[in-house]
Design goal:
The protein is of the alpha+beta class and about 220 residues long. Helix content is about 15%, strand content about 45%. The protein has one domain (about 1-215). It is built from 4 helices and 12 strands.
């Protein structure tokens, strides 16, 4: 663990905190007015953040997303994104079928000026749609930019399958806690292709983040 903490410092996660407010290329700088003050927070599950850092990849928040915390023992990262729109009818009680967000996460391969990929402007889609790789099951959809491998730049892509089997759903408060986000095949392949890694293919189908949405 001590080695991982040293690696974390050496690869610049601390610098990522300073970059939280800095929009990446192509990121929206003027947040869309939101009917809600809610946010969705995602936290890396055990073993995920160390593996990302060990692969030489630096993740940082794209504005208006935020890096809310870096926990060193065990190593984990928490990002959050403002909810901008609730649409698509009702999934359960007051929980809508679609929860839209602004902001995202950029992944950059350290030591390279070109190996970089951004996933942003997420939609929690509980009803299925037409994004690349999308199914009729709950998924997290996002826009992929900065030369993604395998999908068109700017495409809407199914990034994660949403596992609600262990989630607590409060339909009255429009809150979902403990949902797990499992990396999709199309997302894993795009991340590895752009970053020049083999990491993300190895965790396709595995839970990467625990998520809490509070609209």
């Amino acid at each position: 663990m001590r080695r991982l903490v040293s690696l974390l410092a050496a690869t610049g996660i601390a610098a990522a905190t300073a970059l939280v407010a800095a929009p990446s290329v192509g990121a929206a700088t003027d947040p869309v007015p939101s009917p809600t003050t809610g946010r969705t927070a995602v936290t890396t599950l055990p073993g995920i953040a160390p593996a990302i850092v060990k692969a030489g990849v630096l993740p940082y928040a794209v504005s208006p997303g935020k890096l809310n915390g870096v926990k060193l023992s065990p190593l984990s990262l928490t990002f959050s994104f403002p909810i901008t729109k609730l649409t698509g009818g009702q999934f359960a009680g007051n929980i809508p079928n679609e929860i839209e967000h602004q902001g995202g996460i950029a992944f950059v391969k350290l030591g390279s000026l070109t190996k970089r990929i951004v996933v942003k402007d997420f939609t929690i889609d509980l009803n299925g749609g037409t994004a690349v790789g999308q199914t009729g099951t709950p998924q997290l959809i996002g826009t992929v930019t900065d030369g993604p491998g395998g999908v068109p730049d700017g495409a809407r892509v199914a990034l994660f399958d949403i596992d609600l089997s262990k989630a607590a759903i409060d339909a009255n408060q429009v809150q979902v806690t403990g949902a797990q986000l499992k990396l999709t095949k199309v997302a894993g392949e795009a991340l590895d292709a752009e970053l020049g890694t083999k990491l993300f293919r190895s965790v396709i189908g595995a839970p990467i983040f625990s998520a809490k949405a509070n609209a």
